[in-house]
Hints:
Elements: H1 3-22, H2 29-39
Helix pairs in contact: 1-2
Amino acid sequence: MTNQIKNLRIELAEEVMELMMxxxxxxxxxxxxxxxxxxxxxxxxx
Length: 46
């Protein structure tokens, strides 16, 4: 995975987390784990 893709995934995860804090987006536990993994530079569910 290139750095550009990795950075975009981290950016996406941060945006989703921000929406969650605003109450705009709700995730299941599995969905939240997926976003946390993306934020930590991992690919989806591990």
